[in-house]
Specification:
The structure is a homodimer.
Chain A lengths: L2 H17 L1 H4 L7 H9 L6 H12 L4 H23 L8 E2 L2 E2 L1 H5 L1 H25 L4 H15 L4 H11 L6 H26 L4 H28 L2 H4 L5 H4 L5 H5 L1 H18 L7 H12 L3
Antiparallel strand pairs in A: 1-2
Helix pairs in contact in A: 1-4, 3-7, 4-5, 4-10, 5-7, 5-8, 5-10, 7-8, 8-10, 9-10, 10-11, 11-15, 11-16, 15-16
Chain lengths: 295, 295
């Protein structure tokens, strides 16, 4: 199967999971469901849950055991986008080619929809941990890994650093730490979650960490390059917004050519990290895909 | 010991726990810590964590085992207040006698501080569940109980209903459901958490549920009465805001006299529910206190 066909197959699995997750995990329907579903089903790339399923497949894990955690990560990612787009944050009107959550449902509902998605991620993981008496330790540990990646030492710290980096000249080192937290932490959790669930040996975990850190870096560099030279029509969100907001990026710090070199070398490191693990085909192509995508 | 002395003792325990919880549970310091600590240490009544400790004491549980869950509930309560106060939500300038979080740190930081507190609640509970191999099921179940109470079938559903009730004539039944979710759900989780942790028998859980539901109701009726007739100086937040915002309350629906009668009968039901449980003294006085407080 070609990489694109494999990716689409994984994407379909994720879309099917997500399609009913909100209604299946709530006993009381209010209008917030629509707002949550709007952003959750807005056609994201699903890179994080796809990484979780693909690593799980590579390690020959049972797919149903990774499902709640892959879903939780995508819920957390989606909540972070909704809050990030708010007028008081990045003030973006467009996300994935569609009006942002607060543009459709209003700011108050967008705040609550984000809160609801974040909380639902934990409801789903905890329901799973309660249910499975044989693997409760691994499941609690996986949920904890995801929680720490999403929190004030991980993704939220990155968002704070990002916010405070506007209109201030941050160093290249600060930029790297910021992105390692803002986008890297959740990608790392997505890659490591199956290894924790399956209690994989230390060597495999270390290799997966190197892979995750490098595709996380590649992902962000590519985002910055797309914002710098992509077209709004293809990227599906406002482009040039980094420059407009005077934000430090890999492109502004390194220049476009060096940014592209760093993108290339981080993909190479990611590929290298997986070479001793069997069935690495999809994940290696995934690293290449992250660097080559045009949106 | 008098009830007030007992309450103050519990309150001191909670303050001490909370004082270092954010820094103890994060490996990376950013400016969000200050924003989170500002609201967390702003001198709340601490009713929810005190309920958890008191129920735990009544059931003769080990106090250290309830700590992470009592803290988590107060973090969740605090996050909900920060987001609730935002300009796009209730737009309140004053909370517990101090400027609200967004007034001090700006809206963007207030959104993130709320997100950070919510997420930290789960980081703390999951770290505890991972650590304790003997009671991992009860701990996962307790975390799940709290997660469901906080989520889109619980507290968040209540906030959505509350928001949508403005400028619309909601029924008395809708008002009751709204408050049972908005304030009742987390109070219920605080009361039930020790029973789940200690695997208490069904009869005790049922009685605790009746107690929790009735003090939750009493708490909200009292809040509405204070907003209607309290003074700003004593209550510590803007009073009369419900009327200003044209919000349905127990006072607007029932009139002040009937609201006071319902407050009285709900306290009586709460007291009645505990009568077969030993060591109920503090919790019975707590129900009375909730109805008599002046802020």
């Amino acid at each position: 199967m070609s990489f694109i066909a494999g990716y689409k197959e994984y994407q379909n699995i994720v879309e099917n999971w997500l399609d009913s997750v909100i209604i299946n995990h709530s006993s009381f329907r209010t209008s917030i469901h629509e707002a949550m579903e709007y952003s959750l089903m807005a056609g994201g790339k699903r890179i994080r849950p796809i990484l979780s399923i693909a690593v799980n497949d590579m390690l020959k894990g049972d797919r149903s055991s990774v499902t709640p955690y892959a879903i939780a990560i995508e819920l957390i990612h989606t909540y972070s986008l909704i809050h990030d787009d708010l007028p008081c944050m990045d003030n973006d009107d467009l996300r994935r080619g569609k009006p942002t959550n607060h543009k459709v449902f209003g700011e108050a509902m967008a705040v609550l929809a984000g809160d609801g998605l974040l909380n639902l991620a934990y409801e789903i993981m905890l329901a799973d941990a309660v249910k499975d008496k044989n693997n409760r330790l691994q499941k609690s540990e996986t949920a904890r890994l995801i929680a720490e990646a999403a929190g004030i030492s991980g993704m939220i710290a990155g968002q704070v650093m990002d916010m405070e980096a506007e209109n201030r000249d941050i160093s290249y080192e600060e930029l790297c730490i910021m992105h390692k937290k803002k986008t890297g932490a959740l990608i790392r959790a997505a890659v490591l979650a199956p290894a924790v669930l399956l209690d994989a040996k230390e060597e495999i975990r270390t290799n997966l960490e190197v892979y995750a850190d490098n595709i996380g870096l590649a992902f962000q560099i590519k985002d910055d390059i797309l914002d710098n030279e992509g077209s709004r029509e293809i990227v599906g969100k406002s482009v040039g917004s980094d420059e407009k907001n005077n934000k430090a990026t890999f492109v502004s710090k390194l220049g476009i050519e060096k940014a592209k070199e760093l993108l290339k070398s981080s993909v190479e490191k990611a590929v290298e990290a997986l070479k001793t693990i069997e069935n690495n085909d999809f994940l290696i192509k995934m690293a290449v895909f992250i660097a080559q995508r045009n949106k």
